[in-house]
Amino acid sequence: MAKGILGDARLHFDELNKLRILDPEVAQQTTELKEECKAFVDKIAEFQKIVGSLIELVDQLAKAAENEKMKAIGARNLLKSIAKQREAQQQQLQALITEKKMQLERYRVEYETLCKIEADQNEFIDQFIFQK
Amino acid sequence: MRLKTSHLKEPKHKELVSCVGWTTPDELYSCSDDHHIMKWNLLTSETTQVVKLPDDIYPIDLHWFPKNIGGKKQSQAESFVLTSSDGKFHLISKIGRVEKSVEAHCGAVLAGRWNYEGTALVTVGEDGQIKIWSKSGMLRSTLAQQGTPVYSVAWGPDSEKVLYTSGKQLIIKPLQPNAKVLQWKAHDGVILKLDWNSVNDLILSAGEDCKYKVWDSYGRLLYSSQPHDYPITSVAWAPDGELFAVGSFHTLRLCDKTGWSYALEKPNTGSIFNIAWSTDGTQIAGACGNGHVIFAHVVEQRWEWKNFEITLTKRRTMEVRNVVNDAVDLLEFRDRVIKASLNYGHLVVSTSLQCYVFSTKNWNTPLIFDLKEGTVSLILQAERHFLLIDGGGIYLYSYEGRLISSPKFPGMRTDVLNAQTVSLSNDTLAIKDKADEKVIYLFEALSGKPLGDGKPLTHKTEITEIALDQKGLTNERKIVFIDKNRDLYITSVKRFGKEQKIIKIGTMTHTLAWNDTSNILCGLQDTRFTVWYYPNTVYVDKDLLPKTLYEKDASEFSKNPQIVRFVGNQATIRRADGSLIHLNISPYPAILHEYVSSSKWEDAVRLCRFVKTTTAYEDQTMWACLAAMAVANKDMTTAEIAYASIGDIDKVQYINSIKELPSKESRMAHILLFSGNIQDAEMLLLQAGLIYQAIQVNINLYNWDRALELAVKHKTHVDTVLGYRQKFLEDFGKKETNKRFLQYAEGLEVDWDKIKAKIEMEIAKERERAAATPAVRASVTVQH
């Protein structure tokens, strides 16, 4: 009866016979819910942390990949330009070789004439000896 | 020869360098598109900024004001002209102050050049105008105007003409209005640069067709290079005109004046836009497209003489190699070597401060003396002394280092003299005048005074090359020269008394050289290599000249070969492609010269006979030389033998008839007649009082007027002259038309008996006289 009356007044007693405005059952459920919510929030935070670090990692990877890509392009370009450089160098060396060849040709001509002089002089000496 | 290049690791200029210019042999100014003017001191290796120009001035060309103006010498240039892209030129002092800026052209001013005297400036621009300015920058005239930009300009050697580009054409325009303009197509692409040397009068041009070319001042092509990989952006003559430098992309070339290339360098410079030679001609600076200034030294020049070979290995070091025993000596100098010459057993080296004289016998103890002015431009050697020419004058030194003389003449310009225009022998110095190219000044070497009456030798056309013979007596000193028409002439340098004849001995002669040990001349005539074994023949017996020559086909030497030297019996010729060719000349003529100079006639005859038995083709030449030498020295016995050997019977007969002449004087006179010296012969006879003989000489030569004149003057033998004249006229069936003869014939009767008697008498008289002075006869070389 008292219970009924209290019930009508929306008051309740709990197990410890304390007066409660909320139904103890509901109160307990609420508390449970609160606990659960807290756990959920904690878990979500942890999840976020994990995901954050993952994103960071991926970002780093992306950067590294980008770097490597640039390097590769650079290397490829370098390769191409080296070929050109070599060509230029080859051209330069070729010019130098042509120059040396011309010099060689000059020396060859000079050598030939000197040989001819030597032959002439030998002939002259021979002639001279025979005359005597 | 080669270039030793150097440039800094990092460029001093941030933008391309457009122009460079030397002030002294060790200081350079450079201008760049970054508006900075830098000064490079090579002694301290310092580079300092002189001035930063306003941002709107982009320099294009600079040229220093010339150093020597009207004899007043400055140790270095004080200001320069700088042309820029905004259509102005700026006169800028050494410390970098812009003294004056003048609005000159519409569009960029592409080049500016002072003339050699520093009295005028020429500028050319993108607007196609060529303008002449005064020293202070006032406009004098607009010389020419055309539709295309003018990329480069140069003054002629006499500052009377201007050479400029017009697209693919080169144009030479005299400053005088209405004078003839010379214009020719020079390249297949636009011409970018040109230069005109004042010493050798040759023109260089380079263009976008990737070639460089050498021209003479008449526009004749002397050399055209192979096409390069890139356009040629710069060319520059060395001050002495012996070398030039060529610049292109990553390319620097050193070339001989005949065009062939000594050395090629491939420095990392970008295009070389401008090249400047240092004032002493030992190094060049190049303005590079990548902001560098490149320096290049000329090293490894070589000198050869007999068995010695000398190489300039470094700037201050020479290596002497004796080829006979492979001994090597190193010669060290305190300063940079500027010029050197090796000949006659001596090496003369000039550095910037001193002159060293080495003997080939002893390389350890040179003779050293200080030079008045640093830059020696030419060293010439003779057997007993040598000549130094610098900006200030001409100095003759003995090999002991004593100053012998310093010849001068009015209007002398020493900076344009080279080995073709100056010639030295033991007793004489000859210098071709620059102002009047027909004139050769002759000096007594030992006193430095003009020779004889002081009048210079004058020819009828312009002379291009001169050479004195080296041996023999001072009285017989000969000079040969080539004129504009490439004819070769010989004459004696002794010019007192009667005018010496200038006799032509060759045509189409490009180059010549005298032998160092005897008076043998060699030269290249058209396509023949010719040796004049005894050039003096023309003064003795001109008909004999062709027989005293040695000729050889020289077409294998290609175009324009040059004789480098003629030492001993070896001539060295440089072909157009730069290769040296050595030719052996028969040693016998030199020996013959030696015998004759010491009057060993019997030995000379024996030598000729010996040659006859060995080489058949030479003996005619030898005998002909001997004949000419014998007549020149009036040794008629030898002459008779020699003429007999070459089969000139008429001459043998004449010599015999000379021998029969009664007196010494007539014999001498007839020897002179034999050589064609009629005037001398007549003079000799008149001096000896042999009037009749003199008259007879003229009668024999049909020189009637002179014969009559003599007869009338001396009041003797007028009838003889008239008699012979009548006989002559009768023989040819002619009438007397000569007024003088008609006049004298009136009062005289020709009586042949009387004439004959008179002639007999004269001859008898002469014989008597000769007999009366028998002592004199012994000294005469005519022997029976």
TrEMBL record, chain A:
Annotated Pfam families: IFT20
Compartments in which it is found: Cell projection, Cilium
GO CC annotation terms, alphabetical: acrosomal vesicle; centriole; centrosome; ciliary base; cis-Golgi network; dendrite terminus; intraciliary transport particle B; kinociliary basal body
UniProt keyword list: Cell projection, Coiled coil
Highest taxon listed in the record's lineage: Eukaryota
GO molecular function, one term: small GTPase binding
Principal cellular location given in the protein's record: other
Coiled coil (UniProt feature): 79-110
Matching InterPro entries: FT20
Keyword DNA damage: no
Keyword Coiled coil part of the UniProt annotation: yes
An annotated GO BP: protein transmembrane transport
Protein name, per record: Intraflagellar transport 20
Organism: Gopherus evgoodei
Name of the encoding gene: IFT20
From TrEMBL, chain B:
Any one Gene Ontology BP term: keratinocyte proliferation
GO cellular component: 9+0 non-motile cilium; axoneme; centrosome; ciliary basal body; intraciliary transport particle B
Superkingdom: Eukaryota
Localization: Cytoplasm, Cytoskeleton, Cilium axoneme; Cytoplasm, Cytoskeleton, Cilium basal body
Cytoplasm recorded as keyword: yes
Ranges for domain IFT80 second beta-propeller: 300-588
Location (main, coarse): cytoplasm
Quaternary data: Component of the IFT complex B, at least composed of IFT20, IFT22, IFT25, IFT27, IFT46, IFT52, TRAF3IP1/IFT54, IFT57, IFT74, IFT80, IFT81, and IFT88. Interacts with IFT88. Interacts with IFT57 and IFT70B.
Biological function: Component of the intraflagellar transport (IFT) complex B, which is essential for the development and maintenance of motile and sensory cilia.
PANTHER family: INTRAFLAGELLAR TRANSPORT PROTEIN 80 HOMOLOG (PTHR24098:SF11), OUTER SEGMENT 5 (PTHR24098)
Name the record gives this protein: Intraflagellar transport protein 80 homolog
UniProt lineage: Eukaryota, Metazoa, Chordata, Craniata, Vertebrata
